[in-house]
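Notes continue from the previous slide.

Worked example: a multi-chain complex. Inputs as given:
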Amino acid sequence: EDKVVQSPLSLVVHEGDTVTLNCSYEVTNFRSLLWYKQEKKAPTFLFMLTSSGIEKKSGRLSSILDKKELFSILNITATQTGDSAVYLCAVPNSGNTPLVFGKGTRLSVIA
Amino acid sequence: GAGVSQSPSNKVTEKGKDVELRCDPISGHTALYWYRQRLGQGLEFLIYFQGNSAPDKSGLPSDRFSAERTGESVSTLTIQRTQQEDSAVYLCASSAHRDQPQHFGDGTRLSIL
């Protein structure tokens, strides 16, 4: 069965800290891995990593995919209170498009 | 519209009633998805529409759940004879193509009394 496991489940840091969120996955026929940020409502798309794009960066956020070890990390540098959210990792399940989501990492950034 | 639109944003109903949730995808997106998110839990896939193909209903938890989509436009998720365990946020997403990122609506928060 396809599986996505995120760690830690929750994290509290101070503004300015750097954080690393982890996502490991087990899926046959890997196609992509996606990261989303969920604040109060809709998950917001951050990155999609594929075999041809294993590293992405946008501002203070960056993500790397390790296809050999079957995991991805999401890095946030110089964290701000606005980064407080649940970060979700997801992969399309084998043979189908719908995403299998991890339970998320709840990040709290305090001033 | 600019993004995925869902209505209503909140719905409170009594156990045993039927409810209909609506999703307007991003214009031009051929793929549409419904997910359920229980309090403190991850997203759970319900159903997926791709163009005019038969929908993938493999995630629907029971025959009380059904969904329709007309062409590449609006979709409606219907829950019949609601139960308290149906209380959750129901999220809709759409993507331009099956291998493109999914973009989510704000969801409908359903509360069954």
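Summary box: The radius of gyration of chain B is 13 Å. The beta strands of chain B are 5-7, 10-13, 19-24, 31-37, 43-50, 65-69, 75-79, 88-95, 103-104, 108-112.
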